[in-house]
Amino acid sequence: MSLTERCPSCGAPRLPMPACPECRAPYPAPAPDAGVRWTGEDEERVLDKRLLQIAPPAVLILGFIIVRAGVLGSLVRIFDSMWLHEIGHAVTAWLSGFAAFPGPWRTSIGETRSPALTLVLVVALGAGAYLAHRAGRRKLAVAAGVVLLLALALTLGVKPHAAQGLILFGGDAGALVLGTALFVTFFAARGSYLQVSWLRWGFLFLGGFAFADVFTVWWRARHDLEAIPFGEIEGVGHSDPTRLVDEHGWSVPQLVTRYVALGVVCLVVMAIFYVINLVARRSSDRRASP
After folding, report:
1. Mean pLDDT, all residues of the chain
2. Does 43 fall in a domain?
3. Residue 184 included in any domain
4. pTM for this predicted structure
């Protein structure tokens, strides 16, 4: 015991006891040492930064490898990209004013536009944009407003026959876009529900693998037309590319170019989200460091 540590009341040497043995005065409680407090926040921040750097490109590269691997590629198509393909048909149909119900390998689509569906969609999107704005969630409000304008443009500005062509195109196009949307949820803000619940990991793999599956087909089609799924699907009918060429007059080069261009745009969007979030996390870490 250091001689400088004494009882504040009588000056007797301070012993490892709760009170002074000479005058019985209680010793004051020692001040907590903030330097030894550990919460794990720094380690968690470093781990999150490493995952943000490595996981997205690794999953995308793994997806491009797996979709070429026979049985594994078929499993990705059955349980992942096929569903995003059919949902892509349905979403494009809804935005164009057609009723649609997505199912395995086939989406049921109404033959004519449904004014009631368009009215419900416009009211829902408008109300959603308004409520999001009132709640201060401006990004969500802007997104709802953009979708609303898109729905009005496709419903009022596109003729039914051309809209049906867009719905066919919206299968693989939807898989590319929806896959990208799922992929970029991995960059959710720290502390958000997506990040805390780990849903972003599932969305990262589902989106990355589905995108890789569809994009690989159309990237190969630039030099190998046999990669295009022309023909008839048993129990379904003619494939989307066949109908786009035969019924809607799209040329094969147009078909390939449009899918590839959309896929490249989606890749650019992924890259932009990746770089922006890396820079944002780095800036946040610098501000957080003492």
Report:
1. 89
2. no
3. yes
4. 0.83
